[in-house]
């Protein structure tokens, strides 16, 4: 996390239900972290300086200013102790939001919407933020929020991005007074160079090769988070090794969590996690908000 305590949490809004739920989550996150909340609305209508055909009297600036005023009012009602400001920017969404990541603690976006943040899970905006942004990215699902359960789940595979994700997750768990669940999904094993992958139905150690792979995964998991455990001795930790598809394992282990944290790159079960179909599966099906973290060297 940035050492600069003044770095704000940025919330992207477009007036849709999904973005307003993301705003609510961002306001609560700002309260938990003692951060300012910076609300941004970017409008990318083609030829946005002209009146759109069929909408006489439509004014982009008036619309944008009204939207951010309403968003700011909503956030202040939810978190009155948080310092809040809001801006409307006329421009392409992805470049505007990428610019907002510089100096930010976290940028928060909704998983669905009909406006400028629409289809963020399957479009380029989320991927651009995750690939090129300068801070972690939180994607909040468009679902009725659940009561907090006091648990943060993080995917770990020994890679630098996964270690960065673990560091972020430990901090988030400490701020919430929550338990941390560290999950790794080892690859299935094969007995021959060109043999079929095999996976035990019950995950027991009846097969020596499977048990050896699981033991190596447990060792890697423990070593990967050992440093963070020392830095956060008060955080309760559960270590989980579960063979299976990375996205499916993570989503299942986030069913009873407040937050799922992942690295944007990795090896083993999490290779390409936020770069292709697996990423969209995690973001589309996670039962809780997902935070994607990149290693500092990748920024």
Describe the structure in your own words.
The protein has 299 residues and is of the alpha/beta class. The chain folds into two domains: 9-140, 3-Layer(aba) Sandwich (Rossmann fold), CATH 3.40.50; 151-298, Rossmann fold, CATH 3.40.50.12370. It has eight helices and ten strands. The protein has helices at 17-33, 60-78, 93-101, 124-132, 160-176, 208-231, 246-253, 277-285, and strands at residues 9-12, 37-43, 84-90, 106-110, 137-140, 151-155, 179-184, 237-241, 259-263, 290-293. It has a ten-stranded mixed beta sheet, with helices on both faces. α5 crosses α6 (208-231). The chain is elongated. Residues 113-123 and 190-203 have low confidence and may be disordered.
What would you say about this model in short?
Pfam families: Usp. The chain has eight helices and ten strands.
Which descriptors apply to this entry?
single chain, 299 residues, alpha/beta, Rossmann fold, 2 domains, ten-stranded mixed β-sheet, 8 helices, elongated
């Amino acid at each position: 996390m940035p050492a600069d305590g003044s770095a704000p949490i940025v919330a992207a809004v477009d007036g849709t239900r999904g973005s307003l739920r993301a705003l609510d989550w961002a306001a609560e996150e700002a309260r938990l972290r003692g951060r300012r909340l910076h609300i941004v609305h970017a409008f990318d209508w083609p030829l946005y300086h002209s009146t759109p055909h069929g909408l006489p009297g439509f004014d982009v600036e008036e619309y944008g200013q009204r939207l951010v005023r309403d968003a700011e009012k909503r956030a202040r009602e939810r978190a009155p102790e948080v310092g809040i400001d809001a801006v409307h920017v006329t421009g392409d969404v992805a470049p505007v939001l990428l610019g907002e990541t510089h100096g930010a603690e976290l940028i928060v976006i909704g998983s669905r919407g009909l406006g400028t943040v629409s289809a963020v899970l399957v479009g380029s905006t989320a991927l651009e933020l995750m690939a090129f942004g300068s801070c972690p990215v939180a994607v909040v699902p468009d679902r009725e929020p659940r009561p907090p359960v006091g648990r943060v789940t993080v995917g770990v595979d020994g890679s630098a991005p996964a270690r960065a994700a673990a560091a972020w997750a430990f901090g988030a768990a400490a701020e919430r007074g929550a338990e941390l669940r560290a999950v790794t999904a080892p690859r299935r094993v094969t007995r021959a160079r060109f043999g079929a992958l095999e996976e035990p139905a019950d995950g027991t150690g009846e097969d020596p090769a499977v048990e050896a792979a699981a033991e190596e995964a447990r060792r890697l998991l423990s070593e990967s988070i050992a440093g963070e455990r020392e830095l956060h001795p008060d955080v309760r930790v559960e270590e989980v090794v579960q063979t299976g598809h990375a996205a499916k394992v993570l989503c299942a282990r986030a069913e009873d969590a407040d937050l799922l944290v992942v690295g944007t790159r990795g090896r083993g079960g999490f290779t390409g996690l936020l770069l292709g179909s697996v990423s969209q599966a995690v973001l589309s099906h996670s039962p809780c908000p997902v935070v994607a973290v990149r290693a500092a060297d990748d920024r």
